[in-house]
Structures are given as C-alpha cells and as structure tokens.
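Can you give me the bound-state structure? Components:
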Amino acid sequence: MAFDYDKYIRPGKLPHIWCPGCGHGIVMKGLIRAIDTLGLQKDNTAIVSGIGCASRLPGYMDFCTLHTAHGRAAAFATGVKMAKPEMNVILVGGDGDGTAIGGNHFIHACRRNIDMTYIIMNNNIYGMTGGQFSPCTPTGAKASTTVYGNPDPAFDVAKLAIGAGATFVARGTAYHATQIDKLIAEAIQHKGFSVVEILDDCPTTYGRRNKFKSVIEMMNRLKDIAVPVKAAEKMTAEQLEGKILTGVLYKEERPNYTDEYAKVIERAKK
Amino acid sequence: MSQRYEIRFSGAGGQGLILAGVIMAEAASIYDGKQAVQSQSYGPEARGGASKSEVIVSDTMIDYPKATVVDALLALTQEAADKYSHDLKEGGVLLIDSDLVKNVPKGNFNTVAFPIINTAKNEVGREIVANIVALGAMVALTGVVTKEGAEKAVLARVPEAFMELNKKAFQMGYEKAIAARA
Amino acid sequence: MAKKVAFLQGNEAAAQGALYAGCTFFGGYPITPSTEVAEVMSVELPKIGGKFIQMEDEIGAMASVIGASLTGAKVLTATSGPGLSLKQELIGYACIAETPCVIVNVMRGGPSTGMPTGPSQSDVMCAKWGTHGDHPAICLTPASVQELFEETVRAFNLAEKYRTPVMVMPDEIVAHMRERIVFPEPGELEVINRTAPSVSPAEYKPYDTSFGDVPPLAAFGSGYRFHVTGLNKGQDGFPTTKAAWVQAEEERQVRKVDANIDDIVQFEEYELADAEVAIVAYGSTSRSARFAVNEARKQGIKAGLFRIKTFWPFPEKQIAALAGKVKAFITPEMNLGMCTGEVKRCAEGKAAVHGIFRVDGEPINPGQILEKIKEVK
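Here's the bound-state model for the whole set.
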C-alpha cells in the first residue's frame, strides 16, 4: 500500500508554491515519513520556518506551525522550546535564510545544543526573490547579482554547524530521496541540536543561469557528487575532489539546553 | 520646598557612593517614614571617572527627583569636588576627604574635612568600607535621617559576615565628622 | 498584615510588575540602561518554574518572546534605543500575528549609540512609527517607581486583552531612580489573561472575527493546531492576498486600539481647573513640571499639568479640549519636540504650544519650566 502522506497534510492547502523540478517537495515527503516512523504527535509538534521558498513548508503541514520572519526561525523556535520543552520542535528553511540573515541565530542554537532539529534545504540561491547569490552559492557561479561570476567563497553548512557546537549533523540530497527520512528521523531522535542539510536544486533561478539543461541534469549532478561517509573512507583525496560527503557526518552526546535549564530551576528553587 | 533636603554623594566610580546614597534614602523612606528618592549619574567606566548619587528627602511628595540646590555635598575626589560643588547652597554642608581634596571649593559652606578613605583603610581596617565611613559622617552632619534608621539600613544591605566591619565604619565616620566639625 | 514595602529601582519595579502580572518567560539581550530588568528576571523566573533566556541579539530576544507567547506564556523583553530599533521588524510581526508581548524600553540618548547612560525621551515616536506598515500601538510612559510597577502590570493586561505588543517606556531617570514601593497584594490589581478558544480544535481559527475584533488565541501544544505567519492572513491564519479581506483585516488590527481608546488612555490632571498655562509632560519630566506648577501657583500664576501616562494612543481628545480652555501649552521633553508636535496637532491652533527641549543628557529642571511659564503666561 502506498504511503498516505495526506494524513499529515492540511486539507485544501495544496498545491504548494514550489516550481516543477524543485526538490523541496521531496524533502517535505521525507520529513513526513520520518514523523510517521517516529510516531510524533501532531498536537505536540511545532514546525517553524523563516522566509523563502523552503519556509513555506510548515503551512502545508497539519501541526503547530510557525512561519516567522526572514532568518529568525531558530530564535522563534528557541522561545517555543524553552517555554514548552515537552514539544518536538522542527525547523525548516533555505540556505540564505539560515546562514546569511539567520546565521547568528543558527550558530547560537548549535552552541546551546537546544533539542530541536533544523532541516536546511540548500539550493545554493535565493529563489523566492529571483535568484540572487547566497552564502552557499559556489564561487564562480552565476546569479542575478553575480552575472560576472560569484566572487564569494561558499559556506560548508555542515562544518559550520559542527564548529558552532551542533551535536548531530547529517547531509543528504534531494536525489537520494529514500535516505532523507532516515537522516531526519535519526536527527529528531537525537537529544540536542541536530542539523540536516539537504542539497537541493533550484532549476528556475539557479539551473538556467548555470548551464543546466534540465532538472534531470541537476538531479544527476547531486547523484554524482554525493559520496556516503563510509565509502569516502576508502577513497583517496584525488578521488574525493569535487565530491560531497553524505550521511551522518557528526554525532556526540552533550547536555542539552532545556535539560540544563531544568537544573537551573532546581537550583533556584532551593 | 522648605522640607526638601538634597544630598549629593560624589567621587569616583567604584567607591560605593551610589550604595551610600541608596542606604541614606532607605534610612529615610523605610526606617524613618519620610519620602526619599535616590538617583545617580554615571559614565561608561565601572571604576574611576566622576560619579554622583543624589538623595532627596522630604516630609511630603517628592516631584523633581534630582538636586536643585544642594544642601549637603560629599566629595571623595578632587575631580568630584570641582565638578559637583557649583550648586551647593550657601551655608550648606561640604564634606571632603582631606587627603584627596586639596583645593577646597570656595564658597560660604560649612566645610568639614577628615581623611575618610584613610580612616577606612587604617582605622576600620578595610578601604572598601570608605563609603560607609562617609555615610556615617553625612548622617551626623545633615541630621536628615536618624542615626538608628541609618544603622538599620546599613545592616540590611550588608552580608552577615561584614556586619561588624560596617557597623564600625559607620560609627567611626559618625564620630569623626562630629569631631571634625567642632 | 502590613503590605510589603521596599526601596526599589525603577527597572527592578518593572520586573516585579511583570512577575505580578504572571509573566513566565523573559528573552533579552544586555543593553544599558535596561539591564536590571533582565537581571531581576534571571533570578526570579526560575524560582517559579519560569524561563529566562539571554539570546544572541536583540532580534533573537524579540523572536524568542513571540515564540514563547504562542505556547500560552506571558512574555517580557527589555531593551533600550538601539535595541528597540533592532526589534522593530518583529514588533511588526507580533502586531500582524496578534501575539501578546510586553517590551520595556528604557529611553536613553540617541540616535544610534548616542548617550547610553544619559536620560532621554526620544523613543516615543519609534514606539508608534518604528515598525513599517499600519499597525496598532500602545505605549505607556510611567513617572515613578511605583507607577512603573503598576503600568507594567497594565501593559500585560492590555497586551493580553488586545492581543498586541505593548511598550512600557520609562526614561532613564525613572528606570534608574530608587523610591519606596508598596507591593500590591495578589488580587489587588486586576490581572487579565488572554481569551482562550471556546470552540473545539476542529472548529478553531486563530483570527476568527466572529468573536469580535480580538479573536481568542489558543496555545501551541494544547491540542489546538494552527498556523501563524507574518504574511497577511485569513481567519484561518493562512496567507491570503484577497484584496477586500486584507483591507478589512488591516483596519481591524488598528481598530482594536482605536475603538478602545477610553479603555487604554490614562492621564493625570493637576491644577488644571482654572489654568491659563497647561504643561503637557510625561515620565520624569512631568515631575519637574509638577514642581514648577507648585512654584508658579505660589507666585499667583495659574499653571497646571496634564501628565500623559499613556503616550500611545495619544490623549487627543483631552488635549483638544484643553486647547479650548488654556492660553498656552508648554511641552518640556528630553527630545527635540516629539510630544510637542502631537500637542500642536491636537490643539489645532487654538492655543500656542511652547516646547522646552533638552537632548544633552541632562534632565529638564523645574527652573527652566518656571521661567517658560512666566514668559508665556
């Protein structure tokens, strides 16, 4: 029997706003399967986003959903989680939203190790505003504001998260659809701040400016560059040139913020 | 306006003058049943710079919370004496640290001088209680709050372990001021 | 039993007022001269099982309180000038998403870093016009430590009652001075909580105007699932661009305050019955004004004081009525004429308006006001 996604989608809220060929829908389905696997209660789960194409995701989902301001998802979500630690809090958004305007909230959520899961859909571009370069646009790539080629170096989102103190960091791609739910489920189960970066595609504003002839070509690129962490262990530096590691990249156990604050309450009440 | 009495504690940041002002005001409003307002102005420095703490005491409602014509001024540094003595009223009380304020502000004031900081350091035993020595002196010189009220206010503000030290500092300041005035 | 009495700083009283009102969440970022509010909340909230969080910046602080408010908590943040500027986008978010929250903004010199330890009253326009777009604005300007406590309680009540952000804006003098405060007993001051939904989760809509201009607000995690966004939204909370609806909703959000001005606006009239010169003042400046009025009366000059307690919505009706009675207004303020402009607008030329402006980090003293009274009487 086919998986029943409708169980988790708000009636009447589809179709979504995403363009044909965009990978955000693949990620949303992966998230739904992960939620289903874990049996998360709709009433007890908040899905929080910022601004951008990816940030429209919560509106389609039948949960407690909060579509905030550009870059601020992690800060709003921190308020939700602190006030009601018993809720599952999941953040979704794009690369510009999360690592540029929201970069400060992102790194501090990592540092606090607050028990939330952040799914970053990295399509290397500001899609909703028409294709301006983001902190994740590769050097040399074309965007509407880098028509002569992007002079900026790009962030490695996973390294950024690890460096800032996130205790679970994973990466997948929109091509590897069946892996997404597993990564997200593991991330949600992890106690602490977990980050799942999904390499995504934006055919409309990135693909056509960067010589991708079709969505299939963009998807094939994701397929070609992805190397599972395990496989990478047996590869040489030369073989790994231009590749991107996927799977669970980092995991550690460290006290999480709301548990630590519960101890503050205990000490204050003495 | 006749009931309004204005006191200014001035010196350098870190000397505890804001606390001295707070205790004086607490003595008046909590223990003596008068009206009191304490306010302060300070610079960006946590230590050093010029700092002042003002206390208005009155029998009736206090509207303007800052000093208008100062009845009594404490200056623990030369900078404070220079900067904050301009609006001390004629016949007002001027208390200075005799070691630190060498150029005594000119005017028709009842000037009282004794080595406040050195008293704390050498006779009480800790320089940190110079503000309480100064407070004791200001209580003696102004008479605007009762000695009992002020002592209670001091003790309510300090940790158990430092009560004796502060009691001694307050008493020493009180006595030295009376002796210096005579 | 005698009531609890304490000698408190204004900022401490604001924090105590918030706790009295039932605040259980504080999100903040350190900024002079408001930090004592955060410090008190960091000590007191965990004692009652509440939450204090120091966020990574002013914007994050504002975001955290909105997030917490949506779980049903009563929430507070505190800031000062530059922080208020940074918070403005999300204050707009709280307005359109109709999320109750209270912001204590201690007014210091500006713009930008300005004079961080000096008093000012130059944020009053920012309280109304700081965030973009049309939106309701409520701003209270207390003048004493006791009043800062009471007005913070009232700010929570107004935020909860009207589902909107409310600002409490003491100037640095009121925020930092210390006075005796008598703590009200529990139950002595009214404490209002937001209206919870009376319908089932299936029927619930977060902006259901069939319940009036202030629809009931459910809490995340209480069995009600709903969507919150900063986009123009329909009754169900989902984005909409339907022209007629968006227009009606924008108007409703502003009407929540405009139609309830008499419930919100508070002021104090002092010696105004026969006054020829009316001083209009707020915050610590109103205390200088009262001093000056007393002095003027002693000298036989008919001066009075209209003290603004609620700056927004502005007491338009009262100022307009006064304009028909007095010869002149004097508007002392620690800015270059913000309230003065409002008084002129309301006076419509019926009485002259004379400003006294100070932006040098010093308070306006009673002598300055008295001089002006004599000049214009």
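A couple of observations. The CA atoms of residues 10 and 84 of chain B lie 7 Å apart. Chain B has one domain: 5-181.
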